[in-house]
Write the structure tokens for this entry.
Amino acid sequence: MKQNILLLLCCCALFPFGTQAQWLDFQDETAARLILTSVANSDDEEKDIETADLNNDGWPDVIVVRKEPFSISTEAAKSDLLLMNENGVLVDRTAQYAPEFISNITFARDLFIGDFDSDGWKDVVIANTFLQQPIYYKNLGNDLQGNWLGLVDESSTRFPVLTSDVPLICAVWAGDIDGDTDDDIYFVNYKQNANGGIAKDFLLINNGAGVFTEEGATRLGDLRNSAFGTAAQIHDVDNDGDNDIIKVSTLYSVAPWNNRGLIVLFNNGNGTFTNWQNLSPLSPYMFEAGDFNADGWLDFFVVDDGQDYYINVTSAVPNVSLTFTTTNVSGGQGGFGGNVHKADLDLDGDMDIISADVDVDIPPCNSGRKLAILENDNGAFIDQHNGATYDWADNSYDFAILDINGDGLLDFFSGGCAGYKVFMSDNCELITSSADFDNDGISDACDECPTNPDPNCIEPVDYPVVSTEGTAARQWNEMLLASIRRDFARPTVHARNLFHTSVAMWDAWAAYDTNACTYLLGKTVDGFECVFSGIPASVDIDSARNEAISFASYRLLSHRFAHSPDSTQLQTGYNVHMDSLGYDITYTSVDYSTGRPAALGNYIAQCLIDFGSQDGSNEQNLYENLFYTPSNTPLIVDHTGNPTMEDLNRWQPLTLEIFIDQSGNEIPGSTPDFLGPEWGAVSSFALKESARTTYNRDGFDYEVFHDPGYPPLIDTLDNLASADYKWGYVTDIIWSSHLDVTDGVMWDISPASIGNRTTLPANSSEYPSFYNQVNGGTSGDGHAINPSTGSPYAPNMVPRADYARVLAEFWADGPESETPPGHWFTLMNYVSDHDSLEKRFMGTGDIIADLEWDVKSYLMLGGAMHDAAVTAWGIKGWYDSPRPISAIRAMADRGQCSEPGSPSYHPAGLPLMPGYIELIAAGDSLEGATGENIGKIKVKSWRGHGVIDNVDTDVAGVDWILAGNWLPYQRPSFVSPPFAGYLSGHSTFSRAAAEVLTLLTGDEYFPGGMGVFTAPQNEFLVFEDGPSVDVTLQWATYRDAADESGLSRIWGGIHPPADDIPGRKIGIDIGIDAFYKAVSYFGIPTWVEICDNEIDDDCNGLIDEGCITCDANNITSNMEVVEIGFGGTNPRVNATWNNPNGTTTCEVRGGRIAASSIGTGTPLFANISNTQVISQTNGSTVSFNIGLYNNPNVPFVIGQTYGYEVRCLCEDETAFTNWSGIIPEATFIVPAAPAGVQHDSGLALKSMDDASLILYPNPNDGNDLRIESLSEVQLGMGQIQIFDLSGKLVQERNENFGSKVISLNFRPKLNAGLYLIQINLEQGVIRDRFIVE
């Protein structure tokens, strides 16, 4: 919460001092302007603070030494703190730039920052007590690339060992003592009491290079004596041209002054000292020197153990004495003093005073003292806020005054008993010289939008902001997506971040549920144990879950994005969001046994952070590759051709003048490394060991899951077939020619024409029949009817070029995008927000609460996306295949492979295709000035970025270009992702996500029957103008959207088809496995253990318990469908089992086969209708009917494929074998009804002459339902069964359907929902649905 702080500096009748009335406003902006990681925000240690521009970037930085109390010598040493000012935000960069602040723990009391070695970079000196020598931190400046290198301890070569007295140093100051223009150092020493004797200060003389000798004894003699020395400064107090020393010796008396006081040591002019003067024989503690009344003489503001006072110096006898007056500060502080600093806070030309008058070393810290801000009026200091209460005034040890945000106003950073605070000056009216650039009547200093002439405009915030209206899980998912958009485009890393954050949310939710299982909390995952002993019961579980989820997400995101290019603004966004939720980010405890949800959240996050440090991602080294090296030298994209690519089957790095990744971040260096080639070794979610293959190359084990085998390869010597390889990249070239809006080709891109691709190619030989190489797109029947509306999908006609360009841009996940795994989280959130969605698990049962829906859906989708990344990048790393830009240019350099007798023939060249790939002949516009291109290859493709001058108005279009200049349809600073092509991550991510969404919602269709995204005309495209019309992408099903994602990468020139199909197929398996693995944690009572699936299905901590494995060779099955009956009868199946061990009991189950799995070699059920137990003797043949029609929840679909699988119980065994998998001979397609026969609503077949019924009222109120016969046929007795959507039988009764109307009275009343009614008659089975509202 921001708090307005008003400091009133005005003429007031209570005070005799006249001044111009003026208000000062300050705001507490700690949450937005302070990011701490090495210490807690609530750090209660005593502190001393200094500010300086350490990295010479124009922004003042801050160093905090966490002081050692005088009175507690046994207290442990402490780390210090470096805060770098990053565009107005103080960010803890201690570990990065001053790691020895952490490793060299100190007994610090004070510090000074100055350029001691005259190299232009400010160094740091820390004064220590309790026998610890002072420390010199050298500022290393910048490297050759302009990166600041930080601070390093060089004490051993810079400082002598101080031996003239025991180092109990309280304060340090620097200045030129000996007149050689470099800074020398004065350390003030102390003794705790008179029994300790006399302390000796230390004077270190600089040789000009930052190397010091200790010369206190020879230059000062007894003037270096101190009692309890607390402060010192170096200034020319007598105006004689040399610097004198001013110091405090207090608490008791020592020679030569034999009193307490503020002592001036006069410089003889050569750096030696003889005379001295005590200006304040009272009990001074701290002081600040400055010409407060502008009379040319240095004055002193003294913080005393008694009343604070002002020493006004009026004249001097050089090297002898000062003439002065002393005035107590009206309204000032009394009692044991604290740090004091000067600054012109109100910009009136004189120095005001801020005094941290806290009881610094006498517990308790909260002494009731306050920080005071005093207005200076010609040397009179007024506490204008005396008597009022302000948060900023409470118990501040020390503070730094600095212009944090560069607005010309002085802010202050405070270190107090309760931690750190940032207070920003909101007094822009003080800056009278500020210009008014936009002429809106508001000076630029006060103008939130200095370039916007609207005086009411609001400055946009730079940090991410998310709404607090959704669930806690949704809010932090949106914050994570916002973070990904501002980070480097790293699909692997962000899939892992999405998964781990989803795990944090799930574990925080499940910890408060008696049935659910946590994933990591209290478990051992891949050898890592997160110990958990349970939490006390919570009175308010909802609030507890929200708090635990928020703290877990906050801590994990703060850790994971600490090295993001926009880390400062991201951390600010996290802090502000926690503040808006009312949570205290300074609470860092992980002791969940207290019952505090915040501690549980912190603990969960720490477990995930620790787990991530050993999960194979190499996060601790910023995910760098350990072994992989590319086999090809880089392709210089701006040069024609690709002459250096030696292996056309391996990946090639790209060199660009500047490389900006998909998220808009400039990548250091112009040739990015392969991203994540070793990612297959990262701990996964639901990937099975049985799906793992390990390969070794160059001494490294590449872990490959769902191994698809090699992609099409090319043999440059023409010994082996290379046609499939060339066909794929030629497809990229031809589809690039589709990106011309002037070609006149119009497409209907509605679900009626695009989508419903039911069969995927089995291998690359089937790609030409699946992909339309010449015209674009793939085979697909479309969807005739929107199942939500019951109406056909309306046509959606757009230019093909606009559709292709929008697809390439939409799925490319361009600047400020959440990358493919995050893209599907945005789609998940879109689905969850849809008005038509009822949040029922798998489409049935009770509606799930929003938070439960979110944490469950995020867990399964996060697991799927992470597994997709592990799988796809494991495959990419091992097979290491090239991108189209490399392969196309390399083949073009070799020539053409179609005509051995023609020019430029090479077996590894591009095949010629008239109108798309041709040879350049004499007279061609591409022949070159001297004919140098004659005989080379030209392609008709997108012309590239070189012809675009203005991206807002220009369109590159399509024309003939040199094949050696071919470019994908991507940004000029990106061109292609920096990792291998095979297989497509987009295809894998997308199809896995589609399977999860389909299973989760229980519906393959988007809510409302269609998902949409509109790309506005002439606005959506980024690197050229377009689209030429509004283009609305439409997807009937999640799988349609996933398939379109794969196609976009071909039109975008990023993948050939061979990268797409294996990704889709593997994505199916990943999505299904991740879904069921996630469900296994939900603790669903009816969820039983499934053998040999490597999942603890019933959430009891055991995997495959009670399962046995029979010898698969001992049981075989031969099944075939011999009859498909009508009139409600079931398919008749003949089955035989051969079991050498004798009698066997077997189970048969059947259902609809997922269209996407047909032809893949591993057909999968989309749903299972029924299971039947059959006992038989070895070798016998049995005919049976299995009740596929008997489950009203799973109606038959005309034209869809159904099948069966079997599992058996071995003799004398107690558990069944694994299911056999769908048996090819036992599959069939539901036929259309014969003449005179129709399907009812359940798609059972019945004669129209036999029966016809209607239900009313429908919808009804759950009390009564009437069934009316419209048939002249006598139907007779029948059985009525009512099912809910979960398949549970709700009611059952027998009725005589000889009556025209049958009334059903439901007792008890039916709950609201959709019900299925099944009427079993002699003539057949009739099904229908009705709704209770």
